[in-house]
Specification:
With 209 residues, this protein is mainly alpha-helical. It contains seven helices and no strands. It is elongated.
């Protein structure tokens, strides 16, 4: 059974154990999926209401995007765990001789390149989710606007969490040029989308207080 198909108690139990995966990356992907699903719920509560007939086509499109993002983020829970396995094995390779050290360095570098891909993709999907939630918060049912705010908060947390899983891998890379390119991409996503998520949350909170 894939990690994403486990029950919530089972997932939490594994997360709390000494098992190396799921870890922060998988938890971030799940959090992002929950966040975008909350936005999708706002859409579900908007479609079919006469009051929102003028924006129904937009809401339906946002719901379509949300469904795709939910599925993608759930798949990334498993991909993150799968990509981490080679890195976990690489850490255990012997390094007693110069030859062994060179081989370990080679395998480690390849594993780090693989391990950084899933958390970076989680960040990208969370950024897309924040864009979608912005639409739900602006045009969806006012009765469910709080859920759009919660969704934005969750996706922001997932974005931040996934970034740490990017940076812990790039920090260990020998190829510093590649590491800096990845760091810059992650940094740009953080800069733009944490601010956007905070803005959505603040706007929703302002409507409720």
């Amino acid at each position: 059974m894939s990690i994403s198909a486990k029950t919530i108690p089972d997932f939490i139990g594994i997360l709390a154990s000494k098992e190396p995966a799921p870890g922060g990356g998988g938890a971030s992907a799940l959090t992002g999926a929950v966040g975008v699903a909350l936005g999708n719920m706002v859409g579900s509560l908007t479609v079919g209401k006469k009051k929102y007939a003028g924006v129904e086509a937009e809401i339906i499109e946002l719901k379509r995007k949300s469904g795709e993002l939910q599925d993608a983020l759930l798949r990334l829970i498993d991909r993150d765990a799968e990509d981490f396995e080679p890195l976990a094995r690489a850490y255990g390779l012997p390094k007693d001789t110069p030859e062994q050290q060179r081989e370990k360095d080679r395998v480690m570098e390849a594993a780090l390149r693989g391990a950084v891909e899933a958390p970076l993709e989680i960040m990208k999907k969370c950024a897309e989710a924040i864009d979608v939630i912005e639409g739900f918060a602006a045009k969806g049912s006012r009765l469910a606007v709080s859920d759009a705010g919660v969704g934005a908060a969750f996706c922001r947390a997932a974005l931040d969490g996934a970034s740490l899983n990017v940076f812990i891998n790039t920090r260990a890379m020998k190829d510093r040029a590649r590491a800096e390119r990845i760091n810059n991409e992650a940094g740009e996503l953080l800069s733009k989308y944490t601010a956007k998520a905070d803005g959505i949350f603040a706007a929703v909170k302002g409507q409720l207080r």
